[in-house]
Amino acid sequence: MEALSLSLPTITVTNSNLNYPSLSAASSYASLSSLQHRPSSSTILFTVKKSVVRVQAENEDFELKQVRDMAAAKKRWEALLREEKIKVLTPKEAGYAVQLSNKPLLDVRPSNEHSKAWVKGSTWIPIFDVDNGLDIGTIPRKVSNFAMGGWWSGMPTLSFDNSFLPKVMEKFPKDAELIVACQKGLRSLAACEQLYNAGYTNLFWVQGGFEAAEEEDLVVEGSVPLKFAGIGGVSEFLGWTDQQRAAAAKEGWGYRLVFSARLIGLFLVADALFIGAQQVGRYLQEIRTH
Questions:
Q1: Which of 19, 170, 172, 205 has its C-alpha lying 20 to 30 A from 37's C-alpha?
Q2: Rounded Cα gap, residues 258 and 279, in angstroms
Q3: How far is CA 120 from each of CA 142, 149, 192, 208, rounded to the nearest angstrom?
């Protein structure tokens, strides 16, 4: 399922059962004089361990809150669909509505997906977009995203676009019959909820997103097929995504050979780097011994 980034507050967990000594301003300086200038190794180790435990507790609680928020959001979305406050369209039905009835199609995908392929005549307003910031708060998120699979999937760090609703309101009246779509269907459902709460009453959600569309369903522009717009990273380079496997089944061995050659090339490059690193290590060792 398409990943959805939620901006959630960090929660600090305080364990009332742990009676750590208080080192507040009201503490007696006389009783702390032995710790002020020459802290013992056991005190330092205790402080480090306590900090690690606190960080782990905060991370676990943050992840738990994300899971709970996501589960709550899914229940809200299911209710909106069940009560038909948001109507469902297949990609084929959405294509008919756009091509034959000139219904507006709102593409809410991030820029890294939209730039690869888009539906002709659609309006692009992302609800989440690539976070290009390099501030102290963003860099750890980017490192974490890369380490947790971003290097494989090519999915960048995304942030909620606060200008999403104002831009939609500027472009479309609230009584417009608005078709909302994304790559896999999750972000577009979140966008539909935002729009419904803002007063839009004629919303249509494209189930499964563009990834579920066939080539003939929609008129597409861009450098790649619409199904491939959401893939990237090492998995795309090696042809190990579901979309590429499906294409390989249709295209035959010629398509597979391209990615097989890339895999062999990757192994050769890795082997060359390993041998080069060994040679450099030996050279440095020789310099040290002389």
A1: 19
A2: 32
A3: 32, 32, 21, 19
- One-letter amino acid at 256 equals R
The 10s digit of each residue's pLDDT in 212-266 is 999 899 999 999 999 999 998 887 777 878 887 887 777 766 666 666 676 676 6
**Residue 218: exposure state from Cβ atoms within 10 A (0-12, 13-18, ≥19):** buried
Is the distance from CB of 225 to CB of 215 less than 8 angstroms?
Answer: yes
By CB atoms closer than 10 A (0-12, 13-18, 19+), residue 208 is: middle
Is 90 exceeded by the pLDDT of residue 179? yes
Residues 83-138: tens digit of each pLDDT: 999 999 999 999 999 999 999 999 999 999 999 999 999 999 999 998 877 777 77
Backbone angles phi, psi at 81, to 5 degrees: -75, -40
Virtual torsion, Cα 249, 251, 256, 261, nearest 10 deg: -170
| Active site amino acids | 182
